[in-house]
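Annotators were shown the component list below and the corresponding predicted structure, then asked to write short factual statements about the assembly.
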Amino acid sequence: MKARYLLTTAAAACALTAFATDANAAGKWDGGDDLATSPLECGTGAAAPGAPMKYDGGQPTHAPNKAGKAITVVDVPKLIGIGYFNATSKGIQDAAKEIGNVKAKTDGPTEAKIDEQIKFIDNSITSGVDGILFAANDPVAIAPVLKKALSKGIHVVGYDANATPGAREWFVNQSPFNGIAKAMVDAMAKETGEDGSFAIVTSTFTTPNQARWIAEMQAYAAKCHPKLQWLETVEAQEDNNLSFNQATTLINKYGDKLKGLFGMTSVATPASAEAVTKAGQCGKVAVVGLATPNAMKPYVHSGCVKSVVLWNPIDLGYAATYVMRAAVDGKLEPGDTSVEAGKLGKLNVINGSEILLGAPFIYDKANIDTFDF
Amino acid sequence: MTAIPVTGAAASRGFLRRFASQEALLALAVIGLAVAVGFVNPRFLAYRNLADILLGNAYIAIAAIGMSMVIISGNIDISVGALIGVLATVSGSLAVAGAPTAVAWLVPLALGILVMAAQGAVVAYLRIPAIVVTLGMLSILKGGLISVTGGKWITDLPQGFHLADLDVLGVPMPVVIMVAATALAAIWMRDTASGRAIYATGGNAEAARLCGVNPQRTVVMVFALHGLFAGLATLVYATQLRVIQSTTPSGLELTIITASVVGGVSILGGAGTVVGSTLAAILIAEITSALVFVNVSPYWTDALRGGLILATVIADIIRRRRRAARGWRT
Amino acid sequence: MSAAAETALLRAPWWLKRHETLLAIILAVALVGLGAFNDRFLTLDNLLNQGRLMTEIGLIALPMTFVIITGGIDLSVGAIVGLSAVMLGYAWKTFAFPLPLAIVFALFVGGLAGFVNGFVITRVKVPPLIMTIATLALYRGLAEGVSQAHSVRGYPEAFYVLGQGDVLGAPTQLLILIVLIVVAGVALDRTTFGRALYAIGSNETAARFSALAVDRAKLVVYTLSGLASGLAAVVLVSRVTTTRMDMGMGYELDVIAAVVLGGTSIFGGAGTIWGTVIGLVMIQLLKNGLALTGVKGDATIVVIGAALIVSVLIASSLQRRRE
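Structure shown to annotators:
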C-alpha cells in the first residue's frame, strides 16, 4: 500500500515537473492582458497630452429634464465592505451633501461577482433612480444592463473601473493606466536599482484593472528600465492571509535574488509589506504598490515601505458625483473639454468620454499621516 | 457530558490500527512531496520556508479539527469561514477599543462556542439538517458583519494583541496551538467515552442511543467544541497580520472541509481522526507553496491543486475498500 | 406563529400541510407584503425580468433536486459553469468552431464533467460530497488554465437572443427553464426513473436488492447536473456577452439553498421539482422585493439566511406534528 502511495507521489512530482515552465522564458508577464499598451515617456517630463478624440460614450434616451431639480443616484461599486470603496462612497456622500439636490445611496454585492453586480443595477433601474454610478467588475459583462439603464432615460457615469464606452455617458478616470504603471515601475527601479529583479502579487488574473496595469508596467519597464527583471506573478484574491502567504512563498523561493515586490491591490500591498517585515527583509526587499494609507502607516513609519502609489479614492467618488450632476444638468455634454467639480476645480476630458482626476499620488513618510481612509 | 463506556478494549485496538495507517500515509505524502519538490528547488526545504508554510496555514488546521468532529458526528458546517471573519472582527475591535488583551482573546472563544452550540441545538433538538442551518447562518453572519462594520479595516492593533507572534521555547504560537489542539482532541476522541460518543452518533445514532449515548447532547457538544476550535483558529488568523479585514474570508469553509475530508474523515459520519485532518491541512498548504516553487504556470496551479486533492482522496478510498475486501472493518 | 394558527393548521387537510403548499403560502404572503410597500414590485415587467435573472440557478436546481433526492450532492456545479463558459469561448475563438457547434461543445464539456463526477462516485465509491468538492477545485482550475484568464468577447448579435431577447413576450431563457421544469417534474413524478431516484435515496441497499440500476441512475443524474450547468453557462454568456473563468463562482450554495428551501431532504428520498421551483422563486423575489423596498444588499443576505432557517423550521415542525 505504501508503495502505491509513493507511486502516486512520484507521479504527482512528475506531473509537477511536466507542468513546470521557465517563467522567464514567457514573453508576457503573467496577469497582463492582450490589449495595446501606450507607455509614457521616461524620466520626469510632463506627460504629453493625448490626441483629442471624438466623444464615444452613450447617451440616455428620453431622459426627463431634471436640470437643477433633486435627483436620486445609486452607487454600485465592484463590491461593498472594503476600505477602498468605503472611501469612494464617502466621497460620493460628501459631494451629494455639498451639491444639496443629490440623494445618493451605495449598494452593491458583498463579493466582486459580475452577475451579482448586474442584479443590483437591474434592481436600481426597476426602482426608478435618476442616475447610476458604477465601478465595473467586467467592462463587457456590465454593458448590457447599463445600456438598458440608458434606454430607460437613466444617466450612467462610471468611476474606478470602466465599461465599454457606449454603455455609459462618462467615466471618471482616477489616473490613466500608463501613468500608474510609470509611477510604480519608476519607484521600483529607484529602490532596487536598475537591474533589480522583482515579483508581483495581484488579486486575480481576470480583474481588468490589475491586468491592464501589469501589461502597461511591462511595456513601460521594457522602454525605460530594460534591465529590471520580472520573476513571476502570483494570484492572491483579495484575501489578507492568502496575500501574506503568497508573498512569503516568493521571498523564500528567491532568497537574495528577490529585490522587490509589487502589490497590485490595496490588500496585497500591506500583506506583502507584512511578509517582508516578518522575514526580516526590510531594506533588502522593496515593496511598491497600490494601497490605502491607513493600512500602510506602520510599514511606512518603520521605513520598510518607502512609497505607496494611489489616487485619492474620496476625491474619485466626489468627482463622479459632480460629473453625474453636470450630466443631468446639461452642463457636461458630448464634445465638452472640461467640467467643474467643486473643490477639485476644473477637470479635463480625455479619450473622448473620460474625465481625468489627476496624476497618481505618492504617499510617503512625510504626508501619509495627513490621510485617514 | 455523561461518561458512558461505548466500546471495549479490543475494539479500541482495532480502531487504532484502522486509522494509524491513514495518518501514516498522509505523513508520507507530506514528506514525499517535500522531497520531490526539494529535488526541483532545494530552497523549498529551507527551515524558514517549511516553518512559514505551517505558520501561515495553522489556522486552517485548527479549524479543521472541529470540522472533523462535526463531520464524524454525521453533520456538516458551512458557516465556519464566516464565523471566523466575525470573531476576528470582534476580537480586533475589542483590542482597539482598549479592552485588556485577555478579553480580546477570550471573547471570540466564548462567542464561537455560543454561536456554534446554538446551531448544534437547532440541528439536534429541532431536527433541521445541519446544511440548512449553517447555510442560513453563513448568510446571516456574512451580511450582518458588513451591515455592522461597513467593512472598515481594523488597524492600529495594540502591540500585545499579536498572539501569533509569541513563542513557547522557540516554537511559534500558531504551531504550538495547532499541535496541542490536535493532540488533545485526538486523545480525547480516542480514549474517553464522551469522545467516542461522537463516532457512535455519527455511525448510527439509533444504536448509539441504545448504548446509552445521548445523540442530541453529543451533537450540541460537538458543535460547541467546533466553535471553540473556530475561536482558536481566529486567534491565530486575526493576530498574525497587522490588519483585520472585517469581512468574511471567501471560500474558507471549503478549504477547511477539504482538509477534513482529505484527512480521511468520512462524510457519512462515524470515522476519521483529527490527526489526519491536521496532516491534510499541512499537505494542502504544502501543495500550494510547492506549485510556486517548481515554476508551474500560475494559470494552472488551481487545476493541479484540485487534481492532487482528487488523487489523494481517491487513493484513500481505494485503500479503504481494499482493506474492507481483506476483511477489515472500515 | 401563534398557537391558534398552529392548531388551525394541524386540523387542515393533508395537502395544506405539505411542505410545498406551506412554502407557497409563505411566498404569497411575502409577495403581497412586499408588493404593498412598493408599486414597482408586482409588475409583469419586473417579474419577467426576475425570471430572466434566476434562470441560470433554476436550470441547475432541477437536476440538483434529482441528485439530492438520491442522497447525493453536487458542489462542482458552479465550477462546471465556469469551465463550460470558457470552453464555449475557446471553441468559438481558438478552434474557430461555428457558434452552434461551440455551444454543443460547451454542453458536451459540461455533461462530461458531470459524467466524470458520476463515474467516480459510482465506480470508485467516493462519497459525492468529497468527489464534487475536489472537482470543484479541479474544474475551476481547468477553466483558468485553458482560458489563461482571458475573456472571449464579441459574439454575433444573434447569439444574444438567448440571454437578452424575448420570445412571445417572455425572456427566451425563462421559456427554456419552464419547459425543463415541466420535463423534470414529469420525469420525477411520473416515470420509473423518477421513482427509482426516491428508492435509491430512501434506502440504497434495498434499491439494489430490488434490482434497480442504482449506479446507472446515479450516473445519469450527475451527468444531467453537469449538462444543466453547461446550459446555464451558455445562457449566462449570452446574457452578459462575455466569458470569464470565474463565472458561476458560488452558484453551488445558491442552488442548494433553493433546493433545500423547497423541501427536498438533504438525506435523500424526499423532495419535488415543484418545491424547488417555489424555493427558487422565493429567494429571487425576496431579494428583489427587499431591494426595491430600499433594503440594502448586506441586510438582504441576512434576511435570506434567516428565512431559509425559519421556513424549513416551520415546515418541518408542522410535518412532524402531523406524523
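Statements collected:
1. The two ends of chain A are 57 Å apart (CA to CA).
2. The first strand of chain A starts at residue 71 and ends at 76.
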